[in-house]
Amino acid sequence: MSTMVDPGPEAPETAPQQAKPPTRLGDVLFSKISLVSGLIVILFLAGVGTFLLIQGLPALGASGETAYGEPSIWKFVGMLLYGTIYASVIAIVIVTPLAIGLALVISHYAPRSLAKPVGYLVDLLAAVPSVVFGLWGLEVLAPQLLPAYKWLSEHASWIPLFDGSVNSRSLLTASIVLALMALPIVTALLREIFAQTPRAHEEAALALGATRWEMIRLAVFPYARSGMVAAILLGLGRALGETMAVAMVLSATGTGYLTLSMISAENPNTIAAFIANNYANASGAKINSMIFAGLALFLLTFVVNFAGRWIATRGQNKG
Amino acid sequence: MTRNTGAPEAPDSTDAAYTELPMPDTLSIHSGQLPRQATLMTVVFAAAIGAVGGLILGAGPTVIVLLAWAIFLVALTTWSTIVEGRRKGTDRLVNAMVWSTFVIAMLPLLSLLWTVITKGGPVLTPDFLSRDMTGFAALGQGGGIYHAIMGTIMVTGIAAIIAIPVGVFTAIYLVEYGAASRLAKMITFLVDVMTGIPSIVSGLFAISLFIVITGDPLPRLGIGGGVALALLMIPTVVRSVEEMLKLVPDDLREASYALGVPKWRTIVKVVLPTAVAGIVTGITLAIARVAGETAPLLLIVGTFPSANWNPFDGAVQTLPVYIYTSLNGTTDPKYGDIWTDRVWGAALVLIIIVMALNLIARIIGNIFAPKTGR
Amino acid sequence: MKRTSFRSIAAPAVATIAVFSLAACGGGNDSDTELTGDAGDTSVYEGLSGKLVGGGASSQASAQDAWIAGFSTVASDVTVTYDPQGSGTGRENFISGGYKFAGTDAYLTDEEGELSDATKNCGSTPIQIPNYVSPIAVIFNVEGVDELNLAPDVLGDIFAGKIKKWNDPRIVADNKDAKLPNADIRPVHRSDESGTTENFTDYLDAVAKKNWTAGVVETWPKEFGGEGAKGTDGVVKSVTDGEKNAIAYADASKAGDLGVAKIKVGDAFVGPSADAAAKILEVSPEADGAGDTAMIYDLDHTTTEDGVYPIVLTSYLLACQQYDDEATAKQVKGYLTYILSDQGQTIGSEEAGSAPLADDLRTRAQEIVATIGS
After folding, report:
1. Share of chain B above pLDDT 90, in %
2. Phi-psi region of B330 (alpha: psi -120 to 50; beta: other; left: phi over 0)
3. Which end of chain A has fewer CB atoms within 10 angstroms, the N or the C?
4. Quick one: which H or E segment has residue A288?
5. Which residues, 6 or more positions from C8, have their beta carbon under 8 angstroms from its beta carbon?
6. What is the pLDDT of residues A55-80, one digit of tens each?
7. CA distance A264 to chain B (A)
8. pTM value surpassing 0.90
């Protein structure tokens, strides 16, 4: 952590007031305000958990109509969780090689004068609002992908991934949009990590006659391994919770289908997209079911993000 | 030094070192080297073959480009492997693939910006920006997004009013007061958790909260949108301010204390001014991020045909929600694609707002950033 | 470096500011639509002002837009909003008093106690008037096919996914002259809950129970598969822009240039038209619970009457006979009177494609609305 020097005449560690007099009113006020702000953050998060629980738990008994046609609330949430995870995993499979390549361009391949603009362009991608991404995915990307899907369906339909009646608004289209949205954050994390490789390791590898790729393989990757896993997990966390792009692009009915196919009209649905698309028509107990699904999504992203941060800090301590 | 050399050709001097490594695949001690323009030559070669092959097969431009790209990778690698050895060949292959990812990542961005600008640009007339959706606008005549722009400004503004003080003071607590205390660690952890809250969940939270507060089964309030966005904004603000405060050298603080300046005045007069550029940049980026959020607003602020400046009463129209709902807007076919035009026009305005905020943040960062040798 | 980037950044920022200041004088619209028809007894519109909030079925959203626009010309001081949140939300908020009037695709029943609750809230039996009757068209997009005749059982099997090819003998049997391709049928349905789906499946359930086994549903039955699209516009877009060979059901007024199938009624094939749809109310029996203030119908989809189009969406308007607040009572009375006036019915049919109510039904509805008071 940062090396905080003991902050002055008064205030050892925890209880500044008990320290030496005189206690200044301004100091007390200021530290109190800071403390209260910190507590507000805690309160905010506790509020999220509490309200989701209050509004979500009544859905535990839901079935049939109130669980959107599923026999139980667990099946309802399970179906949506499947779609949420599946879509995000495809997105991460797409984004991982792209982000590694892109981060290497910025950290190792591009000449200094080019690295900065390239990084800026990637940040620009992060600035595009998700609703605009969804719009683009629906109107521009989906029609472009259709021929490729048709080809896959004709030549590779024996693979379960490419089974079913072809549709441009399929899970793969949604996942590609998700991948683009996760790309900036994963790239940003990776380039930080790659840049942290000790210069001595890299120069040692090069001095031994390694090519640039060998240097990256031998010096950069081993050093960055845990950081890469963490970056990918954090990207996954981002993709899991993304709403609008999927809601706008994906052709999914109700809780969706338990299918592996990525290019058909009959797709799994994701929690976030389901809520966005069905909230308007929901009333009564259905709202509870929906908030319950939101709670499940919250827990899922929490676990994934937590794992990501845990691996990141563990890697830092070790390295 | 070597790290950032852009040219794909490795310097000759490293060749000598090859003899020190076990190289079963290289027969000669001094392997050859491709000419300087090798990459360019291969690109031309691949493009030509790809085009000819594509035309013979009757393929479209996309397929031709893909074909040429594959030929380029194979040809360059093979050529290099034959002349320079397998290790150099692999290096060239990786080099080409790494740069390919850059192109692949930029294509969607360019396509997106191009589409939004070409489709939205013609829609942006003074009328479109100064009118709302009352009267006959919903039927397909005229109409505009004035109310949505104002709503976005208002709701984002509310979020900023809530999130900035809370975020800044939390960061001050974490850096200046809490230090390594257990509470500070807990807050740091919770801020991390907050970073990962899906936007739709923050909307659900806001709606649950205001169902309880107002007793209305379907609350539609501008303030609710502000709360939801603040929830998304606080962690970004805390993080960036925290980073900036940590960068302030402790010497400055100590010097101030040594002069007998109280701690809070030290923070206000010394620490914050030193870090101000970074703080403002971080906050502006956080605002830019939430200004484009759709999902929570969809749930809690709803839609409204005209500007509503009262955040405590009734729905407010915002740009992202306007875009989303207009996608399903329908009118008699005699009005043509007016809704499609509106969608792209609103998308362009939203992008302009968000990008402008981003650029402003970067200007602030660039102009006021402390000069470092890095 | 810094200078150039600053300039390129400043331009859009300045543009944005200019846009806002320009927009700041905005709001309001003017229109060039000429309203036709008589607005009825104008004395009910005199002295009206304030906000009137309603909402509910999204099916009648565009008709409500039309009425609100028209109403603003006779009572410019009232701001009516209609929140198209869906029938269920509409009924719930009507019962809780959040909406002063509501639109719903299903009339109130006591299956879940809604009728009693609404009666309790209003203080007397609520008013239910069929205000939006519109044909649901079966739209298709098949290369080289302009006309399509479908029998109910064939229609049921197509949407149930049992007939998979366009040149299936059962389709060909009714379309001897059409060049039906040997291609997969791509059925498109509403992915969200909707009254359109409910009325469409109500029809299939009534006339093709053997083929359509999912009953009457608001959400498309997943087991029958097909492509889902959100909203009427989403469905129409998917059929229009997507790959060919699609078929779907949608509000007839939004069909645009798409092919529209004729449906077998008795021995004839009938296409959707407002007149043919309006007829079904005349041949349908009143539902249980119909009374002095409730004009509710169970549509007779199995009718073989000449010239009736059987796939119809009926949506009702809910209001109270008495309101606690005199101003609200006057607003509701004024707005409903306008909807039922000549002008209201004309603008509804011109802009939203709803079928004007037959004269005798309209007279009855007007008599009911005239009783609204406080």
Report:
1. 15
2. beta
3. N
4. helix A285-318
5. none
6. 888 888 777 777 777 888 888 899 99
7. 22
8. no
> Crossing angle of helices A285-318/B199-214, nearest 10°?
130
Kindly list the domain boundaries of chain A, sorted by start residue.
Answer: 62-318
Contact C54, C80 (CB under 8 A): yes
**Contact partners, residue B344, CB within 8 Å, separation at least 6:** A135, B115, B116, B119, B120, B123
* Cβ(C125)–Cβ(C78) below 8 Å: no
Chain B hits for A237, Cβ within 8 Å: 196
The C-alpha atoms of residue B145 and residue B165 are separated, in whole angstroms, by 31
A43's tokens: 């309160």
Read off the pLDDT band of A98 (50, 70, 90).
very high
Interface of C with B in 277-306 (CB under 8 A): none
Chain-chain contact of C89 with A265 (C-beta, under 8 angstroms): no
- Rounded to a whole number of angstroms, the distance between the first and last alpha carbons of chain B is 14
List the 139-168 stretch of B: residues with Cβ below 8 A of A: 165-168
Quote the pLDDT of residue B192: 83
A260-299 pLDDT per residue, tens: 888 888 888 899 999 888 877 676 778 888 889 998 998 8
Share of chain C above pLDDT 70, in %: 90
The per-residue pLDDT for B4 is 44
* pLDDT attached to residue A23: 67
Classify B31 as helix, strand or coil. Answer: coil
Token duo for residue A228? 């890469």
Sequence-distant (≥ 6) Cβ neighbours of residue B147 within 8 angstroms: B132, B133, B304, B305, B306, B307, B308, B317, C27
Count of beta carbons in the 10 Å neighbourhood of residue A144? 12
Residue located via tokens 């029943």: C109
Q: Which of B6, B18, B263 sits opposite A110 (nearest CB)?
A: B6
Residue among A34, A112, A248 minimizing CB distance to B169: A34
Rounded CA separation B341/B326 (Å):
10
Angle at C65 between CA A273 and CA C289, to 5 degrees: 85
Sign of dihedral through CA atoms C314, C90, A241, A299? negative
Mean pLDDT of B270-295: 86
For A62-318, give the CATH class.
mainly alpha
Surface of B (243-302) touching A: CB under 8 A: 246, 250, 253-254, 257, 262-268, 288-289, 291-295, 298-299
The CATH superfamily assigned to B128-368 is MetI-like (1.10.3720.10)
For C112, name the nearest residue in chain A, comparing CA atoms only. A284
Q: Which residues 199-258 in chain A show a CB within 8 A of chain B?
A: 199, 202-203, 206-209, 211-214, 216, 234, 237-238, 240-244, 247-248
**In chain B, which segments carry CATH 1.10.3720.10?**
128-368
Q: How far apart are CA B319 and CA B190, in angstroms?
A: 31
What is the distance between the alpha carbons of residues B187 and C100, in angstroms, rounded to a whole number? Answer: 46
Q: Is A161 on the interface with B (CB under 8 A)?
A: no
Out of A79-88, B133-142, B350-359, C138-147, which region has the weakest mean confidence (pLDDT)? B133-142
Instruction: Using the CB atoms, write b or e for C69-107: b if 16+ within 10 Å.
Output: bbbbbbbeebbbbbbbbbbbbbbbbbbeebbbbbbbbbb
Which residues on adjacent β-strands are paired with residue C52? C80
The answer to whether B131 touches C27, Cβ cutoff 8 Å, is: yes
Looking at CA atoms only, how far is residue A147 from chain C in angstroms? 10
Task: Test A254 with C219 for CB contact under 8 angstroms.
Answer: yes
- Reading across the β-sheet that carries C262-265, which strands appear in turn? C149-150, C262-265, C268-270
Beta carbons of B184 and B175 less than 8 angstroms apart: no
A15 vs B: CB within 8 A: no
Residue of A nearest to C225 (CA): A266
pLDDT above 60 for B325:
yes
